[in-house]
DNA sequence: AATTTTTACTGAACACGTTCAAAAAAAGTT
DNA sequence: AACTTTTTTTGAACGTGTTCAGTAAAAATT
């Protein structure tokens, strides 16, 4: 069995091809119709494959979403990494990276809600704290590590260490807002990004003040405990 | 039709009785078996009623959860209000109210995950920003209004106005943690409450400092915009 | 080359949430 | 009391996600 016994590993070139075919069919339908309206039967039909075969490669409908998540993260990464070369300030980097995230996700807005729907369920393999989604989550946080790493802002070491995780959480919050955002061209979300990035920048400066050291230490210790806990769970 | 055309209003004493019977059967089963393992058919059977009849009173399985949410909130309120009489400090009140919330929810820990599962889905009538759940949400926030209202801490007016909503969000975060908490007697959650309440108290003092006024104003304006948005949506 | 073992694939079956037309019961009306 | 309207209740039906025993094909082994 695999990590959680759901998705079988592919052993054959033919199999790899079929698996990709199913995933592409699924993403097409999800983009067009959203989650509920995209049935496993429709996915299999579009891929020219039997229903059972789809389940051979993807243990459940949710596992297809995990594959989607992995793919869009790759797209986002490809778009965001060049930005880290050009921009050096934390603020400018954050602004670009978040805007790119939203534009990458945009084609899937209709069905993205389901991501968070299951994300909060402890029994779902999709929830961000679950063992199954650890690799994708780690990849996702790594982008924010790179973002923070070589920025020349004066940030105390303790805060700098936790900042990637905190920014990742913040970026999840932005996505949650975007999911509920039905304004034209997602204008509200982009405005929220502008405002919160600006505010965050100020708050980081504030927290970096030596006078803040005791409170900062306390808060960061709490954050690190919370962060570690996810890995320790079943 | 009702608020969203889902739950029919009851017109008869007999109907009221049947509705209560179904809800009680549902809550019993949910407590014993959790959400997935509790089928609508089992609920109907336990209530001695046909499947279709269950759907006559509760438009969907999720609507039963909304009823659960309403009921446990009532229990929590009954336990928490006396505390506001005895305790006067914000810190002590918060500590008690949160601990009571967790102990009220405890019997339903197994299935509470589904609360958050659907809570983040924009299409679900259960999501906290949805129109359907507005009454329960408002009731829930009201408790924190009472909690803040007559406390004698020196808190600036702008912060005091938003504090109930912020504390409600915070309390949702605590519940989210509790859902994932599998430690004995939920020790981790109680520890988290202790630590975060302590920290929150310090942060409120900090934010009340006149020097913080500009940043505070900015942050609170953002929060109030976010809060209003929920009501404006479809 | 024949045989065994592993992988890819099929389609029928299951239990579930949900819907709906229609029957039974109750309440309201004349 | 007879009739109409409304509410309650039923049970069959639909489409869904998922499972599984079994078949076809490919790879590994002899």
What does this structure look like?
The structure is a homodimer of 234-residue chains. By secondary structure, chain A is mainly α. Chain A has helices spanning 13-33, 40-47, 51-57, 61-86, 90-105, 109-119, 134-149, 157-180, 187-208, 213-232. The longest helix of chain A is centred in the N-terminal third of the chain and has 26 residues, at 61-86. Chain A binds chain B through residues 36, 113-114, 116-124, 129, 176-177, 179-180, 182, 188, 192, 195-196, 199, 202-203, 206, 215, 218-219, 222, 226, 229, 233-234, and chain B through 36, 113-114, 116-124, 129, 176-177, 179-180, 182, 188, 192, 195-196, 199, 202-203, 206, 215, 218-219, 222, 226, 229, 233-234. The structure holds a DNA duplex (30 and 30 nucleotides).
Helix and strand topology:
The structure is a homodimer of 234-residue chains.
Chain A: H1 13-33, H2 40-47, H3 51-57, H4 61-86, H5 90-105, H6 109-119, H7 134-149, H8 157-180, H9 187-208, H10 213-232
Helix pairs in contact in A: 1-2, 4-5, 4-7, 5-9, 6-8, 7-8, 8-9, 8-10
Chain A binds a DNA duplex (30 and 30 nucleotides) through residues 8, 10-12, 14-15, 18, 39-41, 49-53, 55-57, 59-61.
């Amino acid at each position: 069995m695999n990590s959680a016994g759901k998705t079988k590993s592919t052993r054959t070139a033919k199999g790899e091809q079929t698996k990709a075919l199913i995933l592409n069919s699924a993403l097409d339908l999800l983009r067009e119709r959203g989650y509920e309206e995209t049935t496993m039967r429709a996915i299999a039909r579009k891929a020219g494959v039997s229903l059972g075969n789809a389940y051979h490669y993807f243990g459940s409908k949710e596992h297809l979403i995990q594959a989607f998540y992995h793919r869009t993260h790759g797209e986002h990464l490809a778009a965001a990494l060049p930005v880290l070369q050009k921009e050096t300030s934390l603020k400018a980097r954050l602004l670009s990276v978040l805007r790119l995230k939203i534009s990458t996700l945009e084609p899937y807005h209709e069905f993205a809600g389901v991501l968070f729907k299951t994300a909060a369920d402890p029994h779902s393999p999709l929830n961000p704290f679950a063992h199954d989604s650890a690799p994708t989550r780690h990849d996702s946080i790594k982008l924010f590590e790179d973002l923070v790493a070589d920025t020349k802002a004066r940030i105390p070491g303790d805060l700098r260490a936790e900042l990637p995780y905190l920014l990742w959480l913040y970026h999840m919050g932005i996505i949650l807002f975007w999911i509920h955002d039905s304004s034209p061209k997602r204008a509200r979300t982009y405005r929220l990004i502008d405002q919160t990035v600006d505010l965050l920048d100020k708050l980081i400066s504030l927290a970096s003040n030596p006078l803040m050291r005791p409170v900062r230490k306390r808060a960061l210790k709490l954050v690190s405990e919370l962060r570690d806990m996810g890995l320790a769970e079943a």
